[in-house]
Specification:
Layout: E1 17-21, E2 26-30, E3 50-54, H1 55-60, H2 68-71, E4 78-79, E5 89-90, E6 98-102, E7 105-106, E8 111-112, E9 123-124, E10 131-137, E11 151-157, E12 169-172, E13 175-178
Parallel strand pairs: 6-11
Antiparallel strand pairs: 1-2, 3-10, 4-5, 6-7, 8-9, 10-11, 12-13
Length: 179
């Protein structure tokens, strides 16, 4: 009975490749690969309840409807109270026990059409195209975030440019708009 070993090797035309095969071994060699650890970053004071995502991940996520808040409703320990509202109920807490920060500034209600005095609404007014990254703590967050009980969502916007201007027109299930 013959044994076959299938090796999937992707050839890149911009790298040099060499291939050699003996009776017992097969050797593949390429140019060096650069692995950047910033893609898998984790804050040194973060625990297992921490997740960090980029705006493009939120934009592409199925079921998130291009909504930053709704994206995190599918995380462990997080649920939504009512399908029409954008509540984050984290580990049994109330939606008002969540802290939302945009560029280190506290936002009491990051949602459109919210009920007065609450932090709920139909959809978030934060465009994922403007978001650089979001750090979400569903428990055990650092003391620098203060006195909230359930969760912390720390949103960082992309840096603007005085020379490069981007125009975008969007028609999607989340609505119609442009900037």
């Amino acid at each position: 009975m013959k044994k076959y070993i299938i090796i999937l090797f992707i050839f890149n035309p911009f790298l040099s490749h060499s291939f050699s095969q003996n009776k017992d071994t097969t050797i593949y060699s390429t140019d060096t690969l650069d692995v950047k650890s910033s893609y898998f970053k984790k804050a040194p004071d973060a625990n297992v309840s921490y997740s960090s995502v980029t705006g493009s991940e939120i934009w592409k996520a199925p079921g998130a409807l291009e909504d930053v808040i709704k994206f995190f409703q599918s995380r462990a320990g997080v649920s939504s109270g009512y399908d029409l509202y954008n509540d984050l109920i984290v580990r049994g807490g109330a939606p008002s026990e969540n802290l939302t920060l945009i560029d280190r500034m506290e936002i009491p209600n990051p949602n459109h059409f919210g009920i007065p005095g609450t932090n709920t609404g139909l959809m978030s007014y934060i465009s994922p195209k403007l978001v650089k990254d979001v750090n979400f703590y569903s428990g055990g967050f650092p003391a620098k975030y203060g006195d909230k009980l359930s969760s912390v969502m720390d949103i960082a916007f992309k840096d603007g440019s005085a020379t490069d201007h981007i125009q975008e027109l969007n028609l999607s299930i989340a609505g119609f708009g442009g900037f």
